[in-house]
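User: Hello! I'm new to structural biology and keep hearing that structure can be predicted from sequence alone. Could you demonstrate with Acetylglutamate kinase? Please show me the input and the output so I can see what each looks like.

Assistant: Of course. The first part below is the input, the amino acid sequence of Acetylglutamate kinase. The second part is the output, the predicted structure written as tokens.
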Amino acid sequence: MPLSPDPYAALRSAARYVRQFRRKTFVVLLDGPVLGDVKLRRAACEQLALLWTFSIQPVVVHGSGPEIDSPFDASSGRLRMDLLADLQAAGVPCVGLSGVDAGLLKARRRPVGEQGSDFARSTDYGPLGDIESVDARLLQHLRGGDYVPVVAPLAGDPSGSVFSASADTVAATVAVALAAEKLFFLLPTPGLLRDPSSPVSLIPQATLTELATLEQEGRLSGPLVSKAHAIRHALVGGVGSVHLVSGMQPNALLEEVFTNEGSGTMVVRESNRGAGAQG
């Protein structure tokens, strides 16, 4: 006997979002504890696999895991391979690349006096660079073959130099270049919090103006300041919405995409109240 009058109600509700987002691009950033914890990383990969199964086109950008200083060392290389292996195990045909491949990301070296000013400096591939241009043809080619690109935050310049880039900035820049429907940041918190010390003070939806107010009031932790700048770049560049969701909860990404209530914080350029978490 069914446990409810309509046991397929949730499926019907999700189908509406599947139709809405079919063939749309979602850029998802994985870094920090989500990337470095086996259980959390695999849960994220399983959610990405479901998006791909529903013909949503994810592009993954990864930073570093906790306590990793240089992605050129053995620990970092293993972490990158683990991410690719976990995606493959979840059924995702992924391809690992960096911003150096096929000139995907071009950058200029940041002045020496500013090298330590970026919160993403922990993803230290070498000197920090500021992205100047994107050539998304390689990503489009891979997506045309139904592959999922997994991008490491490296960028090059015409002289052959290689720079580390902010993973937040890379994710936002790639999202703009691909005219992405959504950009996701998976966080150690449920989303943007009105009180950083209180997980229950979640802000379900915010505009760029409200985000700037939170920053001015000092309500954003260090890493979130970098993400706030990336969010602004993405939305001004035409990305539909940016979502900050928990990487600690195994289904938070799916809940944010496939339910009207969502699970984290959706940031939009201008107010769109009443459209739901996925509007």
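User: So the tokens describe the shape?

Assistant: Right, they're a compact way of writing down the 3D structure. Reading them back into a model, for example: The radius of gyration is 18 Å.
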